[in-house]
Amino acid sequence: MTDQSVPPAEEQVRVEQAAADTAAPRVTALSRISEVRNLGLVGVLVVLTTIGGISQPDSFLTRSNLITVLTQASVIGVITVGMTFVIIGGGIDLSVGSLMGLASVWATTVATQNLGTWAVVFVALVVGVGFGLVNGVLIAYGRLVPFIATLAMMATAVGLAQRISNKQTQILNSVAINNLATNKILGLPPLVWIFAAVAVVGWVVLNRTTYGRRTLALGGNPEAARLAGVNTRVHTVSLYALSGLCAGIGAIMIASQTTSGSSTNGDGYELNAIAAVIIGGTLLAGGSGTLVGSVLGVLVFTTISNLLIQNNLQTEVQNIVTGVIIVIAVLLQRRGKEARG
Amino acid sequence: MTGQDGDVDVSAPLLEMTGIVKEFPGIRALDGVDLEVRASEVHCLLGQNGAGKSTLIKVLAGAHRPEAGTIRWQGADISFASPLAALRRGVATIYQELDLVDGLSVAENIYLGHEASRGGFTRRGQLRADTRALLARLGHAEISPSREVGRLSPAGKQIVSIARALSYDAKVIVMDEPSAVLAHDEVANLFRVIRDLTATGVAVVYISHRLDEIREIGDRVTVLKDGRTVGAGLPAKTTPTREVVTLMTGRDVEFPFLRRTLPPDVDRTEVLRVDGLSRTGEFQNISFTVRAGEIVGIAGLVGSGRSEILETVYGARRPSSGKVSFLGKRLRPGALPHAVATGMGLAPEERKSQALFMRESIATNMTAASLPHYSRFGFLNHRRELTDANQQVRSLDVRPHDARRRVVTLSGGNQQKVVVGRWLLHGCRLLLLDEPTRGVDVGARAELYALIRGLADSGVGVLLVSSEVPEVLGLADRVLVLRDGRIVHESLAAELDESQVLDLVMQGSAV
After folding, report:
1. d(CA A286, nearest CA chain B) in Å
2. In terms of Cα–Cα distance, which of A130, A150, A152 is closest to A270?
3. What is the pTM of this model?
4. Which domains does chain A have, with CATH numbers?
5. Which are the contacts of A192, defined by CB distance < 8 A and separation ≥ 6?
6. How much is the ipTM here?
7. Domains, chain B, ordered by start
8. Residues in A lying within 8 Å of B, measured between beta carbons
9. What is the pLDDT of residue A30?
């Protein structure tokens, strides 16, 4: 009753103006949060590089070491792109590391290599996509929890790779593929360019296509996506096939780096990829994330492990540091979310 | 269970909130709200979505700290540092989304966080006895303390929530739209429980959009608008509806239902034909048709199979027998994406969990069903999406007028408009509406009614499900009455009145 003196029309205008005044800054602030986050990751990279430059002035900031960092980042980076899609879509893929091993072994058998370089590439990609499809079908149609389905695939793929290779390392004879790690295009090994290409294509697909939009929708609210007419099962299957494809590409890259196919290729890469995705700010629950963040996550991740190696720290220290970084990244993510809410 | 000091002056206010201000970044949600609650009364809180009701009860519950204003509790100034602090003082809040743990038993839920224990071990016997006493006090001794809460009906869960409030010896119980999830006879039962509570000195703050309920159960009404109290402590039974609505909206809502201007045209094309549709345990032998430009309403109690029928027609559930034909062609069971692609749309019952992508913008939500339309070779045209969405935002009057806003920041009525806007953009031929006005305020309701009528007049077939009989009768051309999964009556809406429909709906039910 106290406000009856205020004419309703005036009141209305006041509210609308207030809404208009507050709307614009709010929206931009919200959309900038991921950018701010990514800037933060760039800042972390700068800090890491500075630390490297100071602690190992002779070796860290050398051209060859920086190329080493980028090359290492490339292999993990490619499977991280696939992992980003799967996680944004509300799933997880624990099998990518093992699939890399399996694809590299299958592609480097004598029978395959006799057919030539393209046969090696083709087999690696088909193995990746094929087993990725199996993951997807188990999850979408068999209704297995992604964690379980891909954990089972992880074990199976390693076993299969060991069976095929008799636990032997198979030498890769293809000069063309081996050159991917050793040649230089514009000063960088082709492996780095492959990673760049995959990341760019991934970014375009995620941000500019209906496929990317549907992936975000599926991870954000699967029931709403289904009722809006998204074929959620087919889309789920395609996400794991995509992750498998990335594992196939990664298999060729790691085979090129090591000039061999082995069941131990890619061992533990799934955890590195997941860590990079999380450091990059993608929600593990799905529905939100960026590819730029994931790429930066991979770079931060690889730079840190390079720094540790440069400073002659053992792998166990690297593992501990990795764990700590993941925890810090998630804590920062939560703080960012609370600042928004 | 009442306080030890039985000499509390009943006429003195139990709770006095004065000049409460609560600001969120960029928005003043509460701008000087007053609320006064006395012992033993049912105090109703009315206001449109976004008027500040939710924020106010969160301040009262200790979940939000106000920037200014005073709260007096039993005559002394107080500030609630946390929800637990408010609970301990005797202010309990029952939110719309009941915060119970489905996997725990009734007794475990009621005493969660303050279990009677000895040396860290729960005293299960006492827990069960106390629970039994509480449930008996609420007149629901038939609920077993060891029953798993997830297996109770929504009404049963509500009773458990009220029992939990009483277990903290609550003096004020805030209920946020408690009747929204209840069927007709269950509301009557809730009202009986509320009357028993107030008889023992407990005050109830009751939030509802249904004016008839407020008339029936309320003692006094406080009306909020734009974060301010515009009507304080009005008598609930005698204040004219017109006055209440005017206070809430600043305008008169005169004819919420628009009669169709054209006489029903029997020659219009048939959009939907359902033949002998059944789903075991849900509904049996359902047959009906929807023509272009026609609104067909389904009336029935919660649990009579209404939503299930809609979702089966849509392809989200598979029928055990029967067939669905859309635009003259038979639909394959479960072919939901195909149904959407050919022009069917569903605005589901649960907006947040079934329809909206809360983190995404209005534009993204609106175009979710028509992505192919906004893309070439799979590449999205963001600018066209935003332009079209903004146009819908303006024509539907979604506040604020900015399609880049995240849906999570909108009120319930505006969120529902976004869901309807999705199907308007899609240009569908048949729209299935499941409880389109649940949790929507009076003003936005009238707009939605006009919108639905306008859609039908433009040639869209509409199949409408609603718990509110006047809504079905006012909006639909033809009405199907559903009871226990069967159609028991079908006729033109004009030939039915509310009491007839209620009679048809309730016959043979548990009463």
Report:
1. 11
2. A150
3. 0.75
4. 42-282+290-335 (1.10.3470)
5. A67, A70, A71, A74
6. 0.80
7. 13-90+171-249 (3.40.50.300), 102-167 (no CATH), 254-343+429-511 (3.40.50.300), 350-427 (no CATH)
8. 1-4, 8, 11-12, 15-16, 18-27, 30-31, 208-211, 213-214, 216-217, 220-221, 223-231, 287-288
9. 42
